[in-house]
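Consider the tokenized backbone below.
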């Protein structure tokens, strides 16, 4: 079954010469066996007419012809009229093509405006002869009819920005639906035109910011929204902290994770997110933490710009490093000496006692002293839990900020206006879902912390308890003894005070004394605290057409930032490796001095000493 393509021109007006001008052109594809009802509903949907409230009158005429005019159709054997649709009126005009005027003779000597030729090759041959005869030079411009048609057909498929619809996919669909082979550049231009019609240009997106920020400011009272421009009104940066996030931060642990991600639009840029976690370990976004709270700290990936900014703003707040990024640096710097150390390093970073830490660092020194020196130079207090100056809780990595970046991967390609709106919708959806989860939680603790509490209870079943005082008890765990103090909520294993949940040793004491564990858990892990965190809602913004913007805001001019596009093709995802590359096994280096694998002679510790 074949397909028919029709150009629909709408939203225009008739001038004094009875010509239809200032219109929007889109393409509609029908199956050959489509009914008139399918034709009617498709046209109405394409031009945005609600057939439940309005009547759409379509006048059309099908002309039988043997030759194909380039303005008549994009099919192969049929000739159809261009349909002009006026959505403001129920009367619809049409333009029919008289195919008797289609020129197919290359020797045609009479050339005038509005002539229709059978194809481009005939037009080119006629113009070459006519230019020689009349002695003038001419220049051809690119025809946009096919790319406009293709762009109108594929535009609905770009409404969802998460959908990956490449030019190669467009070529396949055009071949299937229209039976036409088109080149890559044509469909690429069609894709760009569809995106421009749907989202506008990236440069024009900056002009929408003043009105958008004004609506956010009056909708979310108490928020901190600030945009910085240069002296030439060029965009520099934008800071947004909604009042919902500021109030919710008071019920979260004062640990802020900062991370940046690159925007992928034509003007690039960086999206910097400051995040913390609520009682359930769920991401809770914070854009501005005004002032300082006690036991506050910052965690990042050791980016120099972030370290500098945090040092300038929070000079008295400790700055910790993400242990995952730190170990990645170790792997890049010491490529041949990290096979046996990842597990040791992560255990060392999470251990709660300095004695266990010292034993593990000795293991690292025996394996490769260079790794030990590098970790010492980075500072144990920056990445090891037992050396931390303040309680950083479960924030050993910058995963909560990285998760936000992962959720906005496709949105980072949008223009800035659409990107900000996508971020607002994402956080509003999270705010609603997490409040609903807290409301529907009927256990003493919420989320994964309730599971941790149950696991610790299961581990405490074979332990014996010997009391010393009313609060201090000695617990025997398979030959190892731990001291638990219920009054101070501490255990010599370190987990009770760091995790703020009864460890297995504390659980043994609580069961021995028949005490409920809820009183010895942090309030941050309880449903009531989570409800307070998400108590304020993120209300939706009104429709753009309903915005009432003052003239002073409309007059505020915002230009795109200065940017010079780098030469070459933009960097995309890494190339997928072949099965042969993935199956290739890398060999180990062998030391030429001692013959042992895993190191070279420069790092060899077994070479004989000079006497």
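A designed sequence for it:
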């Amino acid at each position: 079954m074949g397909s028919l393509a029709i150009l629909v021109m709408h939203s225009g007006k008739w001038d004094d010469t009875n010509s239809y001008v200032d219109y929007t052109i889109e393409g509609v594809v029908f199956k050959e066996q489509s009914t008139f009802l399918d034709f009617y509903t498709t046209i109405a949907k394409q031009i945005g007419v609600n057939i439940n409230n309005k009547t759409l009158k379509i006048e059309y005429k099908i002309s039988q012809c043997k030759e194909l005019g380039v303005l008549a159709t994009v099919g192969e054997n049929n000739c159809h009229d261009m349909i002009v649709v006026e959505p403001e009126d129920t009367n619809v005009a049409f333009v029919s093509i008289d195919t008797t005027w289609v020129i197919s003779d290359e020797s045609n000597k009479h050339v005038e405006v509005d002539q229709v030729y059978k194809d481009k090759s005939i037009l080119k041959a006629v113009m070459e002869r006519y230019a020689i005869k009349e002695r003038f030079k001419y220049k051809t411009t690119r025809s946009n009819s096919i790319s406009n048609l293709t762009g109108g057909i594929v535009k609905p498929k770009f409404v969802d920005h998460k959908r990956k619809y490449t030019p190669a996919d467009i070529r396949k669909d055009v071949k299937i639906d229209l039976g036409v082979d088109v080149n890559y550049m044509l469909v690429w231009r069609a894709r760009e035109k569809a995106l421009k019609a749907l989202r506008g240009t990236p440069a024009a997106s900056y002009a929408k910011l003043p009105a958008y920020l004004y609506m956010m400011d009056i909708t979310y009272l108490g928020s901190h929204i600030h945009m910085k421009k240069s002296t030439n009104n060029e965009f520099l940066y934008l800071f947004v902290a909604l009042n919902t996030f500021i109030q919710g931060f008071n019920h979260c642990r004062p640990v802020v994770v900062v991370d940046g991600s690159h925007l992928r639009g034509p003007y690039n840029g960086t999206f910097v997110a400051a995040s913390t976690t609520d009682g359930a370990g769920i991401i809770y976004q914070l854009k501005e933490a005004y002032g300082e709270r006690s036991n506050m700290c910052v965690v990042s990936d050791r980016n120099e710009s972030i370290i500098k900014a945090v040092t300038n703003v929070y000079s008295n707040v400790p700055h910790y490093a993400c242990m995952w990024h730190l170990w990645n640096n170790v792997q890049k710097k010491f490529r041949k000496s990290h096979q046996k150390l990842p597990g040791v390093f992560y255990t060392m970073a999470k251990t709660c006692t300095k004695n266990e830490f010292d034993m593990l660092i000795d293991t690292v020194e025996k394996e490769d002293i260079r790794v030990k020196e590098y970790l010492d130079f980075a500072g144990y207090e920056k990445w090891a839990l037992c050396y931390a100056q303040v309680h950083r809780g479960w924030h050993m990595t910058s995963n909560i900020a990285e998760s936000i970046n992962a959720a906005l991967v496709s949105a980072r390609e949008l223009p800035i206006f659409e990107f900000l709106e996508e971020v607002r919708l994402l956080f509003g959806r999270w705010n609603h879902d997490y409040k609903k989860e807290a409301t529907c939680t009927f256990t003493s603790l919420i989320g994964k912390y309730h599971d941790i509490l149950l696991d610790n209870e299961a581990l405490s079943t074979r332990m014996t308890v010997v009391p010393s005082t009313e609060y201090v008890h000695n617990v025997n765990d398979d030959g190892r003894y731990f001291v638990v103090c219920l009054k101070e909520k501490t255990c010599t294993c370190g987990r009770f005070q760091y995790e703020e949940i009864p460890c297995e040793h504390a659980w043994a004491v609580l069961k021995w004394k028949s005490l409920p564990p809820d009183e010895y858990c942090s309030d941050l892990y309880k449903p009531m605290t989570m409800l307070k965190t998400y108590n304020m809602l993120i209300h939706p913004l009104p429709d753009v057409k309903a915005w009432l913007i003052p003239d002073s805001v409309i007059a505020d001019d915002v230009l795109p930032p200065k940017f010079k596009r780098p030469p070459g093709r933009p960097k995309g995802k890494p190339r997928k490796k072949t099965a042969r590359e993935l199956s290739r096994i890398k060999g180990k280096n062998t030391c030429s001095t001692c013959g042992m694998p895993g190191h070279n002679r420069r790092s060899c510790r077994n070479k004989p000493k000079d006497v």
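The radius of gyration is 34 Å.
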